[in-house]
Amino acid sequence: MKILHPKTLDATLDAIKAGATPVAGGTALQMQWSQGAERPEIMVNIGPLLPCGISHADDGNITIGAATTLDAIRQGRVPLLSDAARDVAAPNIRRLATLGGTIGFGAGCLLPALLVLDAKVTTTQGTLPLCDYLTAPTGLILSITITPAQRHFWCKTGLRAAFTPAIIVSAGALDISDGVIVKSRLAVGGGVVTPQRLNTVEHWLVGQCPDDLDPAALCERIDQNVQAPSCAFRTATYRRRVAALALAEGILHGTAKATKRKPPARPLPHPDVKTPPVLTTLSRNAGGDRWHTRPDMPAKVRGTMPYLTDHREDGMLIARILRAAHPHAKIRSIDTTAAQALPGVHAVITHKDVRGLNRFGILMQDQPAFCSDKVRYIGDTVAAVAAETAAIAEAALALIKVDYEPLALVTDPEAALMDDAPKVHSDSNLINDIKLERGDVDAAFATAAHVVEDTYVTPRQMHGFMETEGGWAAPDKDGLLVCVGGQHGARDRLQLARILDIPQEKLRIITSPIGGGFGGKDELTVQPALALLAQKTGRKVRLQLSRAESVAAGTKRNPMRIRMRTACDAKGKLVAQQVDLISDCGAYASLSPSVTETAMEHCAGPYEIPNIRTRGRTVYTNNGAGGAFRGFGSNQMTFAVECQLDRLAQKVGQDPAKIRRLNMRMPGTPGYLGQTIAPTERLHEMLDAAQASDIWNDFDVEPDEIAGVGMALMMQGTGLGTIPDDTAHFALRLQDGKIEALCGLDEMGQGLIVSLHAAVSDKIGCDRADIRAVFGDTGRAPDSGSTTAARGGYVVWRGVENTAPTLATKIITAASDRLGLSPERLKIVPGGVADITANAPIPLVSFSELGDLEAVETFFEFPKSDYTKSNARFIFTYAVTLARVAVNRINGTVRIARLDLHTAAGPVIDMAAYLGQMEGALVQGAGMTLTEDAMMQDGQMVTKNFDTYTMPSIRDTPSEIVVTAHESLDAGDPFGPRGVGELGITGVTAAIANAVADAVGQWPTVTPFAPQDILTMMTKGART
Ligand SMILES: Cc1cc2nc3c(=O)[nH]c(=O)nc-3n(C[C@H](O)[C@H](O)[C@H](O)COP(=O)(O)OP(=O)(O)OC[C@H]3O[C@@H](n4cnc5c(N)ncnc54)[C@H](O)[C@@H]3O)c2cc1C
Hints:
Residues 256-277 are annotated as: Disordered. By secondary structure, this protein is an alpha+beta fold. The chain folds into five domains: 1-148, Uridine Diphospho-n-acetylenolpyruvylglucosamine Reductase, domain 3; 150-254, Enolase-like, domain 1; 317-407 and 472-516 and 521-542, Aldehyde Oxidoreductase, domain 3 (Alpha-Beta Complex); 556-722 and 874-1022, Aldehyde oxidase/xanthine dehydrogenase, molybdopterin binding domain (Aldehyde Oxidoreductase, domain 4), CATH 3.30.365.10; 727-861, Aldehyde oxidase/xanthine dehydrogenase, molybdopterin binding domain (Aldehyde Oxidoreductase, domain 4, 2-Layer Sandwich), CATH 3.30.365. The chain contains 30 helices and 43 strands. The strands form eleven sheets. Strands 16-18-14-25-22-23-24 form a seven-stranded mixed β-sheet, with helices on both faces. A five-stranded antiparallel β-sheet has the order 4-5-8-6-7. Helix 10 (215-225) crosses helix 11, helix 18 packs across helix 19 (527-537) and helix 21 packs parallel to helix 22 (634-652). The protein starts with a strand and ends with a helix. 56% of the residues are buried. The structure holds flavin-adenine dinucleotide.
């Protein structure tokens, strides 16, 4: 690629004539390249030669040089254009992007604004109206002249609040004289919408008095005149509707017709609660001396902490993986000859290089490490290459010839259950079918006063961790070292040893630290390819998936369809519930069957329902790969349960708190499956707190928004349940002057290190800085089980409880021997051991001076119920989520104004870590609710990267998140602090759904809530 910098405009024009592409700010090109557009061979930098600046003429016209940046326009007080420029891209783009480039780009957000300002374009070939230039662009744009009107309006709707491709942009300009429209200009454009003036409506408006216009008729007229296409993300109907609502709003602005729509009234919880509960507010301000900076935080914030994927050494080979070319196909042959012959390639491996079991999977080994006969999803691994550079490895991938025979696809889980459906594996597509029936369900429904029924649909959410899957592997003196972020090193070792056919002792697996997991690194990811390549080449090999590859190959939250029918009597008492859940597993089981099982265990939420009939099925399809994700099925089920509760409350005429209080489980009541449940629940107290909250009060929203408040209760099982092995080893020792904890769990960003520091220092009195955590290394730490199912916090706490007193005694004894003082006179203080009678905690002997002390080890089982008929949890955590939302009347988007979370999970071990878990979970849950869906069509990803997979950004995050914890435990409760990794996410979808229903009168049932559905609900109005 060559960039020319001519000195004159003539030389520039000559270069363009010769085929060079003109570039001003270069930002549109940057965007097009990121989407795969071809890069021009020769570019010519035109920016410095073009006019720049804004000049105002006496006739009111304004001329803007083509090289003027959007940032300068934003600051330039140009009518309409300055406001509009604020909504284009991000500040760093606006500082480069030019007005000429925006027009040259041809699809920019500013075009509708320029069209309604009657822009004239002056080019090197003359002056012409913008519409004409857009139809036949010729010549270099030198400047633009615009004619402002009396009144302007503008609206951009993107995929979400932050900058993203525009769904549609609309702009208007009106001149009004004596209350009558004398000139009107309306335009739409942006993204895939061709920029266009709405001439027919413009003409019709002239002579009309805005006060006399009928809003619905006006909308309809505009709607019919907008030309807009559908795309994967929004329909043409939605685009037209948004444009119509926005333009009608602008035209009617200031008239009596532009009234705010009020949400339909419904009973609200009564705030008078007799005994306000004692809750701890979690925040830096309220925390006082309970607030500690996480030890891993400064380096993470500075970006200086190396992850396993950051590891670099001279001579490391680079690996790349060849993924399936089809979502479902037979492999006839794989030819790696040409790839192997490429200079710089050190190894090309396929299924033929797998000496051991060519399959893996946490629950059932159904996923090939390297596909041999068939591919089942687009992320399947077919071959891998290790080469001297990434470019050589990628070139080698392109030389691998795979002969496929495409097979019929199955992408709908319900269709996959048909007898004649294509089979993803050899047998049935049904993996598990969990049924439970209790009581006389049919009779209860037959006599119930109210019944509500609907299907709740949840998305294929992506974990979206910052660090994509990757790491490195190397032969070492004992065998093989594999360093890849994971959530259970010992289990990764077991699975890898089977694949490599070597004893587990020959493998050392390092899994921490990890740049985020959320369940997405629970299953093996790139370990088999890295290990085999390191083994074959005898060299260190590294690999990190690009984001696009991670999107295609990584496991996702299982999309679910939950049909739920719930009945209550005339007073709101629940009498029966029927649930039918179908979960899309994708091509391989991983943990999907357990996710379904967990969802089913949360079928009734924290309520008592005497008659139940439930069924949950997990089904193979060619839709990617499903698996573990924070919430693990309970959040999907809670969404359905809690919306059903609100809908019944509506039917009974009760407020949402009252119906919940009426049906809430009592402490000590058996769990949903009939199992015993650990004491300490605090649901009643939290409902009191929720009821007393000021979140129910009226609050201000923007003129184009409708306010709503919703609540959701939830209980969330922790630990793996009764059936799987759920044990943990843990050890504590004094080593090199530090109290060292050896634990096989993983620090993924969730705050395990700080929780450990808090637990140890609280228990034995040392400083947090005296503690060293050794996590995620099978060579140094014992097997503590998986870092999943919110079990980490309990494992750390129990481990410390079991070992710290003995280690403390050993330390005191060692100090007593060294100092010649009786143990009774000594105590552990920050830095070492001090005299108990001393005024200041100054150590008489430091931990370093005491030398190393042998580890105190413990082995324990995560607390379980005695229920064995199926998998059941024993320890639950409880919470109430409250959401305050503002629903936009123009585009149907939902803004979360505030989220409150009341939790009951025992004592807070570390406040910052706990709060971080809750805030992160709430926002992650909000993403699943409002924007996140890894869309697939015909087995291919539609959302291939983060530009269209819209995770919440800071602009989508509620400005207020209030987390309060009910820390007390029942007298004699032996189980201590509960794990809270999942608690925050469980109820957030339901709370937001109920808040949206409060605002618009209808319950959204498909997540993420499509703005077009919400607009439709608004037109329906009444609650159902
Ligand atoms: C992260 C990101 C976000 C973005 N978000 C938005 C958005 O929200 N809305 C939006 O509208 N756009 C967006 N864009 C696209 C783009 O940045 C803008 O449209 C921008 O205004 C283009 O200006 P530029 O000067 O950088 O154009 P360039 O990239 O330099 O050029 C764009 C095109 O115009 C031609 N051209 C440039 N100058 C002239 C001229 N004087 N005469 C004739 N042809 C010319 C070029 O040959 C090229 O074909 C985004 C881009 C990025 C990278």
